[in-house]
């Protein structure tokens, strides 16, 4: 009997506008950048924050999300906080930035800078 292998679903879902933003970032990325990386460093009044930066090397436990315009890496230490989340890019007259719909977040600070799990 043959073993069936099924593709693992992505831990993080990117909207079309988030994918377009990743492509835009990669189009002007510094030399040596292989993608952008999402992590959740400890900061802010609630504990964790979302951070997106250029990355020059993939770490062994990073989750890799391929998009048509470039690769998004999710920090291996942050993945448990982000499973099932949707990452969007939103622009209006006053702000522009990535917005996260995170089912794991139990609360957030008043300014929206950080969240708790």
Give a quick precis of the structure:
By secondary structure, this protein is mainly beta.
- Report strand order across the widest sheet: 5-2-7-6
Q: Element order, helices and strands? A: EHEEEEEEHEEEE
Indicate the percent of residues in helices: 10-25%
Structural class: mainly beta
Radius of gyration: 15 Å
Protein name: Iron-sulfur cluster assembly accessory protein
Family: Belongs to the HesB/IscA family.
InterPro entries: ATAP, ATAP_core_dom, Fe-S_cluster_asmbl/transfer, FeS_cluster_insertion_CS, HesB-like_dom_sf
Organism: Sphingomonas olei
How would you describe this structure to a colleague?
There is one protein chain. With 117 residues, this protein is mainly beta. The longest helix has 12 residues. A four-stranded mixed sheet has the order 5-2-7-6. Strand 3 and strand 4 form a beta hairpin.
Attribute tags:
11 strands, mainly beta, 117 residues, 4-stranded mixed β-sheet
List the helices and strands and how they pair.
Layout: E1 12-14, H1 16-27, E2 35-39, E3 42-43, E4 47-48, E5 51-55, E6 63-67, E7 70-74, H2 79-82, E8 85-91, E9 96-101, E10 107-108, E11 115-116
Parallel strand pairs: 1-8, 2-7
Antiparallel strand pairs: 2-5, 3-4, 6-7, 8-9, 10-11
Pfam family, one: Fe-S_biosyn
Family: Belongs to the HesB/IscA family.
Domain Core: 12-113
């Amino acid at each position: 009997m043959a073993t069936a292998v099924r593709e693992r679903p992505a831990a993080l879902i990117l909207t079309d506008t988030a994918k377009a933003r990743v492509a835009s970032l990669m189009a002007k990325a510094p030399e040596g950048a292989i993608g952008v990386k999402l992590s959740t460093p400890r900061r802010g009044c609630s504990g964790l924050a979302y951070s997106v930066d250029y990355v020059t090397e993939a770490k062994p436990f990073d989750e890799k999300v391929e998009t048509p315009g470039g690769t998004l890496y999710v920090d291996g230490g942050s993945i448990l906080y982000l499973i099932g989340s949707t990452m969007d890019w939103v622009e209006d007259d006053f702000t522009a930035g990535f917005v996260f719909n995170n089912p794991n977040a139990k609360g957030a600070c008043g300014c929206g800078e950080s969240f708790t799990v």
